[in-house]
Specification:
The complex is a heterodimer of chains A (214) and B (488). With 214 residues, chain A is an alpha/beta fold. Helices cover 56% and strands 10% of the residues of chain A. In chain A, α1 packs parallel to α3, α2 runs parallel beside α4 and α3 runs antiparallel to α4. Chain A is globular and about 50 Å long. The two termini of chain A are 33 Å apart. The chains are: A alpha/beta (214), B alpha/beta (488). At the A-B interface, α4 and α5 of A face α15 of B.
């Protein structure tokens, strides 16, 4: 039974079947199966497979996004059932968002999906994210990384503001900062004191892993 | 294998009005009645005289009355199926779909190892057939090059053997020039089809025969065509007048010469083998008055190609075209833009078969990567020809409402469902960022295509012919080598 449900969860994600993943997650709760195991060895395993497939060019972005959505909706069911004090093992925790004044959402969402697919625990703050929200969330979830996106030359300066706020909050030593977006470059990342620049969604995974020494 | 849907009415282009087509038709009938055509086959002359043509045996000149043209047009079938040795590759020319075909009968190969141009070999031919077999955009395989490393008198048979052995698709060939060769080819095709009666029912090959401009039917090819027609093998006659040299410099006059060659050939074939399946083809183009060469990539070639399909529709015959032709010597910029232009015409006018994929330098030079590039151009052109479909499903109003302002459509079933139909998904074109492209080795599309061809050849193995069929074909080749050596 236990192997079977794990296999079914894996396959639901690999087949980017959102409804099935949700249904199986409910089954996990109903049968009293270990939700942590379901997340890590079921859903998480499936998501890694799909992440690899996307990187290898075998599948298209909508499939990856649907798989990530399957994970997200399943977590909403499984996480509340986790025993107090336990948390799922992840490569690292990432808080991600598009900076204040910038409503470009899609690139950042794809990066979030890619990171999720590759085993990171991702908190997506959406777009037009106030500086304080980045800092508060990072503190709250003890994040390892903050990812910021800006698509406008006029909003990219907000990235420096977030880094300064992190310093003030005494978090800069604990949190690595990755920046990305069309006008952003390696030079800009260096100038504002970010830890890394990620060129695209695929690159972001390697950049994040490298920063955490994984 | 991909059946492309022909361009929609709004997108497809028309060169001639119905009136002009009528004018060309009646002009052609006048040429056939008054000028006539030379037919160098006594056998054909006799039948033509018996059916009502006026024959001058000394000049071998035949005047064909219009009513015989009408009769021949009534006899030929409208829809033709080009069967394949693997039935899943059957090509049904139903007038609504369009198929891509390789270019054929080249003489040279750009050696993948040395990059040098050299005479093509049977091995090169096998390689080209394997790649065409793998590519799902190719519906029909025309032996792309000739095996110049085998004795000349049995070359067409070796070409057919290598083709049938290395692709499970329909094989359409062009180089048969004598009825004796045709008989051996029919034997080989019948073996693969499962007997002579099966070959009639499911002809796995078809044959194309050049007429000689202006207005001549040579003895060998004509008699070979008749052999094939009697065996049930579909025939196309291929006029290739060169405007200014072997037909009037004006394109209208060239059309008439081409059409007269084609319709007189139709009369010959239908009178000797009534109901024989035939295709309408023409490679009329212009003669370049500076370089003295037939032009494969010229705008005039495009116009004449377009009109040839209009005539095919006028006569209710399936059409096959050249296209994707180029005068470039190597893969690269000129090859790509000329092929895109000369490929667009046959795709947009709605040919049943669009040929010309994979060769360079006026259809003479084979290089494995070019067919990969041409396949990409072909798929792009058909995507353009599809236009935009407007209905409830494609308008997706419910979805637009569900996602609302500010969301995204990436994780939607609708996106996945329509992705491959709505969006052209490139096989080799590079759409990555400059940095990623650079990191991956800064490869040109020609290099990428070359690697892809290599990969296909390493991985793809078409189902081989059964052992005893291979053996029997070998015996036919041996027999032919002796017998054809004797014939003049």
């Amino acid at each position: 039974m236990s192997e079977n449900i794990l296999k079914r969860l894996r396959e639901a994600v690999v087949n980017y079947d959102i409804e099935l993943a949700v249904e199986l997650s409910k089954e996990v709760i109903a049968t009293g199966f270990d939700p942590l195991k379901a997340i890590e060895q079921g859903l998480g395993e499936g998501l890694r497979v799909i992440g690899d497939k996307f990187e290898a060019g075998e599948i298209f972005l909508p499939m990856l996004m649907m798989a990530a959505q399957a994970m997200k909706e399943s977590l909403a069911i499984l996480e509340p059932a986790l025993a107090k004090g336990t948390s799922r093992k992840a490569l690292g925790r990432v808080v991600i968002g598009t900076v204040e004044g910038d409503i470009h959402d899609i690139g950042k969402s794809i990066v979030a999906a890619m990171l999720t697919a590759n085993g990171f625990e991702v908190y997506d703050l959406g777009c037009d994210t106030p500086t304080s929200k980045f800092v508060d969330k990072a503190k709250e979830v003890k994040s390892d990384i903050i990812g910021m996106s800006a698509l406008l030359t006029t909003t990219m300066t907000k990235m420096a503001e977030v880094i300064n706020a992190l310093k003030k909050a005494g978090l800069r030593g604990k949190v690595k900062v990755i920046v990305g977006g069309a006008p952003v470059s390696v030079a800009w990342a260096e100038k504002i004191g970010a830890d890394a620049y990620a060129e695209d969604a695929i690159a972001s995974v390697d950049v994040a892993k490298k920063l955490l020494g994984k | 294998m991909i059946r492309f849907i022909k361009a929609s009415q709004r997108l497809s282009c028309r060169i001639l009005s119905k009136e002009s087509l009528n004018t060309v038709h009646y002009a052609t009938l006048e040429v056939l009645e008054k000028t006539g055509v030379i037919v160098e086959s006594d056998k054909a002359l006799k039948i033509l005289e018996e059916t009502g043509c006026t024959v001058n045996y000394r000049k071998r000149l035949v005047l064909i009355p219009s009513y015989l043209v009408k009769e021949a047009l009534m006899k030929k079938p409208k829809n033709v199926t080009l069967y394949a040795r693997n039935p899943k590759n059957d090509v049904r020319l139903d007038g609504r779909h369009s198929f891509l075909c390789t270019d054929g009968s080249g003489m040279y190969t750009i050696d993948p190892k040395t990059g040098e141009r050299r005479a093509s070999t049977k091995e090169d031919l096998s390689i080209s057939a394997k790649i065409a077999d793998y590519l799902d955009v190719i519906g029909v395989y025309w032996p792309m090059i000739t095996s110049q490393d085998v004795p000349a008198h049995v070359r067409v048979l070796h070409d057919l053997e290598a083709s049938l052995a290395n692709t499970e698709k329909h094989v359409m060939f062009e180089t048969t020039t004598t009825p004796d060769e045709a008989r051996f080819q029919i034997e080989m095709a019948a073996l693969v089809a499962g007997g002579k009666e099966e070959l009639k029912r499911r002809p796995v090959v078809s044959s194309c025969h050049c007429t000689i401009a202006p207005l001549k039917h040579a003895k060998g090819p004509t008699e070979a065509a008749i052999e094939f027609a009697k065996a049930g093998v579909p025939i196309s006659l291929l006029p290739m007048p060169q405007a200014g040299a072997t037909s009037p410099i004006t394109l209208a006059g060239s059309m008439v010469v081409s059409n007269a060659e084609l319709l007189s050939g139709l009369v010959i074939v239908q009178m000797m083998a009534p109901g024989a399946p035939m295709l309408y083809t023409s490679e009329a183009s212009n003669f370049d008055m500076k370089t003295l060469r037939w032009c494969g990539g010229s705008p005039e070639c495009g116009l004449l190609t377009a009109v040839s399909n209009e005539l095919a529709e006028y006569y209710e015959m399936p059409s096959a075209s050249a296209g994707f032709s180029t005068d470039a010597k190597m893969p690269g910029a000129q090859a790509c833009y000329e092929k895109a232009v000369t490929g667009a015409i046959p795709v947009f006018v709605g040919y049943d078969i669009v040929g010309g994929l994979g060769l360079l330098d006026a259809c003479t030079v084979f290089t494995p990567e070019q067919i990969i590039i041409d396949a990409e151009i072909g798929r792009m052109l058909y995507r353009l020809a599809q236009g935009i479909e407007v209905n409830d499903e494609t308008l997706a109003l419910d979805l637009i409402h569900k996602i609302g302002p500010g969301g995204n459509y990436l994780a939607e079933k609708h996106t996945l469902k329509h992705l491959e139909k709505e969006h052209y998904l490139p096989e080799i074109s590079d759409r990555r960022s400059y940095e990623t492209w650079k990191k991956a080795g800064s490869k040109t599309v020609v290099e990428v295509a070359r690697e892809k061809a290599k990969e296909i050849l390493e991985k793809h193995q078409p189902t081989p012919l059964e052992k005893d069929i291979q053996k029997e074909i070998g015996q036919i080749l041996k027999r032919a080598e002796k017998e054809l050596a004797k014939s003049p």
